[in-house]
Amino acid sequence: MTQQSTSAVAQRYTNPLQYADGVAHTAPDPFVLEYLGEYWCYSSCADGVQVSRSADLVHWDRLGTCYTEAGRKEYWAPSVILIDGTLYMYVSDMPEDSDNHHEQIMRVATADRPEGPFECVTTLFDGFAIDSQVVRGADGTMYLLYADNQRAGVSLDRPGTSVMIDRLDTPTSRVGNPRPLILPTRDEEIFARNRFGDGRDWHTIEGATLFTHRDQAYITYSGNSFTNETYFVGYAQAALSGDTPLDELDWRKHAGYGTFDPLIHRRGHVEGTGHNSIIKAPNGVDDWIIYHARERIPELSGDETERRQMCIDPIDYMEGELRTVAPTRDPQWAPAKPDVEDMFGGDDRDLHDDGNWRVLSGMATVSGHQLETSLHGVFRAILREERPWNTYLASFWAKASTADAGGRFGFAVAYKDERNHAELVWDAGDRRFRLLGAVDGVHREFASSQREMPYLDPAQWHRWAVTRTFGTCELRVDDMPIIRADIPLDGGAIGLFSQYTSTRFAAMRVTDHADLWGERLADIGRELRIVDGALSFDERGARVWKDRPVRCEREFLPPSAVQSTTGVRYVFDVAFDRADGTLEIMLPNATVTADAEHVGVTGDEGSAMPAAVERTDNPAEARRDRYGRILCTIIIETQGGTTSIRTREVIWTFDNVRTDNERSVAENRLTCTLNGASLTGYCRTSINH
Fold first, then answer.
1. 408-425 pLDDT per residue, tens
2. Using only C-alpha atoms, what is the Rg of the chain?
3. pTM for this model (two decimals)
4. Residue 433 forms beta bridges with which residues?
5. How far apart are CA 10 and CA 335, in angstroms?
6. What domains sit in the chain, N to C, each tagged with a CATH number?
7. DSSP secondary structure, 95-142, as one string
8. Which of 50, 674, 486, 4 minimizes the C-alpha distance to 282?
9. Which residues are designated catalytic?
């Protein structure tokens, strides 16, 4: 697909990240936002908020200051959210003639472009408040996460700064009913002993970032002082429950079963790790943590010269918890690209004569990295990429100028022919999203959004994310859930759609991806062919039927995965129903075995593997689900001629014995056997670098 980027596309990266001008720029408190297929990083600075831009999260261009105010200094921890065409920045600063950091006041500034300039529109607090993040709940409610001293500042137990949450009734005004989210509980969170000379040890919890995965919500935070070498990233977790608001969830700090178990902490010569944001890789699937760190230089100990630089590393979800290899300093695989990407580069490009698209009807032009459809007629174009497209995650940006007669535009979820197709569309007539289409020539509406959306302006850019998992599709717009519905079509092509509407599309990306958990596990038979035994399904997962072992298999590598930069990742989440329950995963070049106490990997001839490892030194510390079952997550990833197998305790990495294109059909197999164990989750994602 045609791509447009600001820099070279990376296969590997090394922390700290590099800039195009060759300068080792600092980037404290990095907050990263995606806008029209590019990444924008906003970071703290004494003189004003700094902004940088990247196409791939690895190579960055420093653009300079995007926000400053006369008479102010020390611009701390900016965060930005896009709401109906306006970018809102939440950032704290202080008077330039003050040396008291507790005079940091949170401002709201706006811009219509990510590079700014941002202009201050209001002050959000009367007193000290820092480290913002604004998120939306499933119903569109806006929440502000921040840190202040109001809740824990006078605590007799552990006084200090804590993470709070309040609702916003508009992007520039608070409801004014704050609640505590994360409070100090450990000595490792102490900012300074006897900080104010009154005998109290001051604690600090700050830098909160909220995100979700499956049925769990997470908040990462930073503890103690950013000037300390022991500054760390921890996290809290809550189960998402129906319509329960984010500020009413039961948040619990990850405590490592009584031990200090931070997500990111100093390692080797890397220290001061903290204040992160979370962003999706270009493939739209993988979560990456963006954080700052600095090199440990003993002779500069106590020197407050700014040295914090931006770093990135991937996040794994294992046994219901977060894991990461961060902080890294060795070369790592870069964030994955999608299978298909069109940034609509090349002015005057003719889609009718384009090797990537097949235009079925209508007219469109490409200019300024956007595809614009004609107001006259029905535009429908599908990708020429030949694959079934039964499972995928697609994302793109869209906006439209609707006429007096209304307008419809959106995404072709499945197109087989003119008699069998389905489209997700925005319908200007009643301001709803709809899933429309035809089966055997009979046109029908499959589903619609449950409510009108008067706050959504279709004339402004919005990010659509469409997930198809076999017969089910989901739509999220600006990361809010809109529609989940069944479609009675198997396979089909995917593409873009506009009906008598002048629509602009940008940054389209598609990744082959299947994530099965909860009730979606009922589709596991379409991913893993059951060879022996049978599975039953309930709230505990895909369980072996009548206590008989179940053997499943599938093709390990897709036929397209013959290049050194392509591959696939499998995630198996298992719960052991019996004390002697086992899991076995046979790959073309290795076998993984796991039970409640051990995980082992053995290789075929020519592959040297370590011996089996203990899953935990203390069986009482094993991760368990609400039914008391011991959990185990196995992540298998093959790319670039190597295979890695990851568990919570250890990572095995080894060269593939044979190159992908030398494997016979019989050899290219993944076989999974469950005995006294249940599959609670399964995920497959194609990998491109």
1. 999 999 999 999 999 999
2. 26
3. 0.95
4. 426
5. 8
6. 12-333 (2.115.10.20), 340-511 (2.60.120.560), 516-688 (2.60.120.200)
7. ETT---GGG-EEEEEEESSTT---EEEEE--SS--EEEEEEE-TTS-E
8. 4
9. 29, 206
